[in-house]
Design brief:
three-stranded mixed sheet; 3 domains; about 325 residues; mainly alpha; 3 strands
Length: about 325
């Protein structure tokens, strides 16, 4: 997981979380929370298109009014925002003692709620009185941070996953379980942002579904052990090669292709979630004669977003 403190690097204005499919097909980052299913398709290029579309769709979703209302209910019910604000308060207090504008500047950019080596060096150079003030605030920061971590753990174990799934199926009318888990993931990231001031960039990991491969091998009387091993490896390679080729096949989208997929995701969000009409979008983005372009985009986004292991029927 990477963090960023510069608002200018966010995916869209005012966004608390940037969701990025990554710069290329070989970007592999551990998800913050394990997802409910896999990204599956006949080709690796379609898997990559899925994560581009998924990232763009979720970037739109975190601005949706009903999603923000859902997050507000979760925060009020758990009291998790209180602990996040307490952490932020003590962090900002430590920053004032050290003469730093923002508390987020004290933290290690590659870890949650850990002070950076630079911060510790600054503390050593301060007067004894300043060090005592800092240590008092640091003690409060640690207590509040531990309480926040316990609250996040409780959130994961509570029945919020079921509530998120009901929200996705009944309120949003979507059939993909991964949306529910994405919403939980984003909510927890917003909590950490509120506490630390660090803007989080989310990267996806493409996990192809394991193929159902059955191999029957029997050694021959005239074969030596070395010959049998070579034949086994050769036969295994012949069976596995088509699956590996499928993952590498297809044309991976370049920058222009990525922007097109992101636009498809935005149209899908506007039509399926906001309830906008194709006609109104055509007037906004294109000429009225180009409604077929938007219809194709919405249909393609629906296909790409559905390239996951499970759906609700």
């Amino acid at each position: 997981m990477k963090t960023k403190s510069d608002k200018s690097q966010l995916g869209f204005p005012g966004s608390p979380v940037e969701i990025d499919p990554g710069p290329g097909r070989n970007t592999y980052m551990r998800p913050f929370l394990p997802l409910s299913d896999e990204v599956v398709s006949d080709t690796g290029s379609d898997m990559f298109r899925h994560v581009i579309c998924r990232a763009a769709f979720m970037n739109e979703m975190v601005r949706y009014g009903q999603v923000n209302e859902l997050f507000a209910r979760w925060g009020q019910r758990t009291g998790i925002f209180k602990w996040a604000d307490e952490v932020a308060s003590s962090l900002n207090g430590m920053a004032v003692v050290l003469g730093i504008k923002r508390g987020s500047k004290l933290l290690d950019p590659d870890a949650q709620l850990l002070l950076s080596h630079t911060t510790l060096e600054r503390v050593k150079r301060r007067s004894v009185r300043k060090q005592q003030q800092f240590l008092k605030l640091f003690s409060t920061f640690c207590r509040n941070g531990s309480a926040l971590e316990r609250s996040v753990d409780k959130l994961r174990k509570a029945g919020f996953a079921s509530e998120a799934m009901n929200f996705v199926t009944k309120t949003l009318g979507l059939r993909w379980p991964w949306v529910a888990f994405e919403l939980l993931d984003v909510f927890i990231r917003i909590v950490w942002l509120r506490a630390s001031g660090q803007h989080i960039v989310r990267n996806y990991r493409i996990e192809p579904r394991r193929p159902n491969i059955e191999i029957v091998f029997k050694s021959r009387i005239e074969e030596s052990l070395t010959e049998a091993r070579r034949r086994l490896n050769r036969e295994f390679e012949e069976i596995v090669r088509p699956h590996v080729s499928a993952l590498k096949s297809g044309k991976f989208p370049l920058e222009k292709g990525r922007r097109t997929i992101e636009q498809y995701a935005k149209w899908f969000y506007q039509v399926r979630i906001e309830g906008r009409s194709i006609r109104s979008l055509a007037a906004e983005y294109h000429s009225p004669e180009d409604r077929s372009v938007i219809q194709h985009g919405v249909k393609e986004a629906d296909r790409l977003l559905g390239l996951s292991g499970y759906i609700w029927k």
